[in-house]
Specification:
Blueprint lengths: L1 H8 L4 H19 L8 E3 L2 E3 L3 E3 L10 H5 L5 E7 L12 E4 L4 E4 L8 H10 L1 H4 L4 E5 L10 H12 L5 E5 L14 H22 L5 E5 L5 H11 L6 E4 L21 E4 L3 H14 L6 E4 L5 H9 L4 E4 L1 H6 L2 H16 L9
Helix pairs in contact: 6-7, 10-12
């Protein structure tokens, strides 16, 4: 059924189809999904019903939490959200490359702001029932770079009482200078500020909220060395590896949209994302979990990331091409993969 719906949606501009697709999920999403088998695990101190999650970006404002959770995801990450509402970059800013199951986007953190998102989380029946929601936070486009840390602090304070975990997004290629926060003194200052604010929030609200950091797949080996060394000594609960890429793999170069600026996601990202995942897994502490994302379009892709050391996986673009049954297929493949893995390698916390 989804493949028939997809044919109609793909006749529309990508962002229009995105919006209509979400409305369709609100109305009939659960009828398009397969029942998802249980595959419980613990990571970041949280109990997940299964290790397959929705990546941030599909539901930036938390408007569709209950419908997305009904697809069987073990967790749903919403955002990226910024302190103040912002429209994002000019349209058109999202482009499908169907011949390679890819998307290029330069949305630019278009969202209604942290206050609106928090209201939506409070209204969610699924969250109230204990669903695991991640809130992905970023900086406003017009915030000066030297004040970027304060934007993250504003969002962290407001998200803390509601989030199961909070993701610090410093890896989108669509906000100028954002990726600079992954390097040098800016990275150290951000980590230090987050640690101090997290301690204050923990004391104020008497609840633990794991902090995750989302990093780009485009780092050099030397950059990964430096980042991992700092993360190994920081109070970060986990890493999301990674985000969209600014690279353009050879297989997409014949597409009419290949020259569009923005971040590339989907099947062509898989090789780079997996190489990044393996590099981070080799360098990070064994007890620091990784969420593997990037390039998942079938169950085998998800299971492959678990075999490489990811504790959990996420996707977004794969949902566009494969449809809601991808959640079931990914969980089923991971279950099969875990039967082949030594017990000592499974389910790190």
């Amino acid at each position: 059924m989804y493949q028939l719906l997809r044919q109609g949606l793909f006749r529309l501009p990508a962002e229009t189809a995105h919006d209509l697709g979400l409305l369709g999920l609100d109305l009939a999403g659960k009828w398009l999904a397969k029942p998802v088998p249980a595959c419980p695990l613990t990571a970041f101190g949280l109990q997940f019903p299964n290790p397959v999650g929705l990546a941030a970006g599909l539901d930036k404002n938390g408007d569709h939490l209950d419908a997305l959770a009904a697809l069987g995801f073990g967790f749903v990450e919403i955002g990226t959200v910024t302190p103040r509402p912002q429209p994002g970059n000019p349209k058109p800013r999202m482009f499908r490359l169907p011949e390679t199951q890819a998307v290029i986007n330069r949305l630019g953190f278009n969202n209604k702001g942290i206050d609106y998102l928090c209201r939506q989380v409070r209204r969610s029946r699924w969250v109230a029932a204990g669903g695991i929601v991640g809130i992905n936070i970023g900086k406003n486009k017009d915030t000066p770079q030297h004040q970027a840390v304060e934007d993250y602090m504003i969002c962290l304070r407001k998200a803390w009482p509601l989030a199961s975990y909070i993701t610090i997004n410093i890896s989108s290629p669509n906000t100028s200078q954002l990726r600079d926060l992954q390097h040098g003194e800016q990275f150290s200052e951000l980590l230090q500020g987050l640690e101090q604010e997290a301690l204050r929030m923990r004391d104020r609200h008497q609840r633990e909220v794991p902090l995750l950091i989302k990093l780009a797949p485009d780092m050099t080996s030397a950059e990964i060395d430096v980042v991992c060394d700092r993360l190994n000594h920081a109070a970060i609960a986990g890493v999301i590896c990674g985000n969209t890429t600014i690279s353009r793999p050879a297989e997409i170069l014949s597409s009419r949209h290949a020259t569009e600026t923005g971040g590339l996601s989907g099947a062509p990202l898989l090789g780079l994302a997996n190489a990044c995942l393996q590099a981070f897994r080799q360098r990070l502490r064994a007890d620091l979990p990784i969420i593997g994302t990037g390039g998942i379009t079938c169950g085998a892709d998800a299971a492959g990331k678990v075999a490489m050391g990811a504790s959990l996986v996420q996707f977004y673009t794969g949902l566009i091409y494969a449809g809601p049954t991808l959640v079931h297929d990914a969980v089923q493949a991971i279950i099969a993969q875990q039967r082949l893995m030594p017990a000592s390698n499974a389910n790190p916390d």
